Amino acid sequence: MQIAKKYFSEGLIQLTILLSLIGVRVDIDSYLSGYYTPLIEINLGPSSAYTQTPFHNLRDTLDGHSVHPKCPELDDFFASRRLLDEVRTLGSRRFPTQLNAWLVHQVSATDKADCGPSTSNNTSTDSGLESPGDEARDDSEHLPDSGQDVCQTTPELGQRPCSTGACGFLKEEDDVKVKEEEEPAALTQLAHSSTLEQESLLEGITALSDPARHQPPTIDIDQHWSNLLSLSVTDLDDLDSLVTERLSDLDTDIPSAISQDVSLHDAMVTRAFGVASERAESRPVTQQQRTLFRLESTGSSHSDPSPGMAVGLAALPFASVCNLTGNVSSHSALGGCLDEAVFDQINQLGLEGLDTQLMGSLESMNPQVLEDLDSDSGLSLESSSGGPVSPGSSEMSSSSSSYCEDDCGATGYSSEVDSVPSKGIMDYDTTWSPIDLSESVWHDHSYSSPAFFNQPSVTLPHKGIKEEPLSDDEGSRFEDRDLSRDELRARAMCIPFSVLQIVNMPVEEFLEVLDGHGFSPDQVTLLRDIRRRGKNKLAAQNCRKRKLDAITGLQEEVERLQAQRGRLLKEKQLTAKTMGAVGQQIKQLTRDVLARLRDSSGRPLNPERFTLQCGANGRVVVQPVRRPAVATSTGNKTDKRKKDKKQ
DNA sequence: TGCTGGTGTCATACA
DNA sequence: CCTGTATGACACCAG
């Protein structure tokens, strides 16, 4: 996580620097600070990664700003993610729109950096976690304090690259100043150091500044907006072309943290077209799915191309999804620092859009079981529960849909995404047969948690563990396929529910299913086992995550305590040294004093036999050295021991 | 071939 | 008593 964070921050900083050179200001510090927050929380303790958060609820909100009460910290998290999306969009075809947004931010930030403390306050609050290293990397853009004057310019100055860079610096400078107010001792040093570096780096730019122009902010915000609108529309095309040229160079430099989405997108699109062409006649909604996945791929790339989350996207419990996202395992690990929650959300979106397709596959696969299904109603996967044994397919469908709506994201742990190996996806991709649509159906039978979403095929049957007997026909059909054992069992027992449903439906509903569907005792037992195993699987994953977190936390504590020990040892040595010096001084002073004193017979006091004692009242008294006392005490002890022995 | 990490599962305790 | 959760232990698999 730390490495990923480092890569990610460096990539963003590089992008920021380059964008600053061409006049686009990127508020990277506010992003980074807000972005790091959930990461730190993940490292330090319970977080969204372990909270059963219904991230699917976020899909109806704007960038997830309305989050589950369990995860209030995700507010900032999604806000930062939105900023990241905007930054990344600079390299995509949506660039002009996003650039316009950045121009808005540029001017407003410039004004506020000059004029208002509000931005500074906000930024300082957001950048509370900003590392000094990040600040140091941005030093190349920094201007000295006088650089504020450069920013006290008219909008035409704001178009200059140097001025924008100066504004970026100024914002950070304001941050430092605010921090100084809050923590003067600790941060003043930092601010001074960075200021010195900035002065040394940008002496030439400082010549442009005029201290006399340092004036309080007086420009109206509306005026700035009008200026902004007047310049952004006209200069947007130029900036667009210019930035596009620069970004073409950036593609090779910026780490894959930002550009990995390209590979993901390409891979997905390629596969989407290839697979879609093969299934065109059997899946009328393929085009829709493809569109959906292209959108999702874009969204995922905006979030982060972490391997785990790429798998999370790719591992939707549908065969088509798995095939569309086959080559995601090559993604860089640096993206692992981003939110798995985003992919949970994406998974939810994908689940919605794929239900229709899945139902088509279900019908073609198992008509004897699904003959009563209402296939043209866009039923979700769970509508398969409304099979021949279902008393009411429509009712069951609605209720089952509620599983997905309420439980898919609510159950499980988003942090599991990063632990899901991509091999499952690759294996599935290589073994998938576009002709056998039933496989696409049964690959959907995975748990609703992200872990299960991501493992439509990775839950390989454990050969060593006891297997419930399967018929030869069933075994031959599925033994080499990547279905979980429970999925195989469920199908062997003709249970019209997916493991996902069984695990995630509420217990009341589960009991209704057990009672109202006329299941045999074996089926009931299997249903209960599947549910228990699914629940326990999630619990085990959660438990392991917690264990890893605990280990990480303990390791960090060990490091902290070791550092503290080192400090204390140094302090101890220093104290001992000081005490020794003071002792020597006292001895010397005692000798001097005693040498000037005389006893009753007029002879000087022997420093070996007398000492000076300072009383509590400040009086200094000459006392004889109590050497015999030590010997006496020792003798007393010896005597006591002898007495004890005698007794 | 042994090691290691990840994962699923079972047994058990607890709420 | 039932259900869900947490966790240790075990086995399997893949790298």
TrEMBL record:
Q: Which residues form the BZIP domain?
A: 526-589
Does Protein transport show up as a keyword for this record?
no
* Biased composition regions of type Polar residues, renumbered to the chain: 117-128
Q: Give the molecular function GO annotations.
A: DNA-binding transcription factor activity, RNA polymerase II-specific; RNA polymerase II cis-regulatory region sequence-specific DNA binding
Q: Which SMART domains match?
A: BRLZ
List every stretch annotated Disordered: 111-157, 372-403, 626-647
- Record keywords: Activator, Coiled coil, DNA-binding, Nucleus, Transcription, Transcription regulation
Q: Name one Pfam family in it.
A: bZIP_Maf
Q: Which residues form a coiled coil?
A: 544-571
Q: Which GO terms describe its cellular component?
A: nucleus
Compositional bias per record (Low complexity), positions renumbered to this chain: 376-402
The record's InterPro entries line, in alphabetical order, gives: bZIP, bZIP_Maf, NFE2-like, TF_DNA-bd_sf
Q: Does the keyword Transcription regulation apply?
A: yes
The family line of this record is:
Belongs to the bZIP family. CNC subfamily.
Per its record, how is this protein called by name?
Answer: Nfe2 like bZIP transcription factor 3
Upper classification of the organism: Eukaryota, Metazoa, Chordata, Craniata, Vertebrata
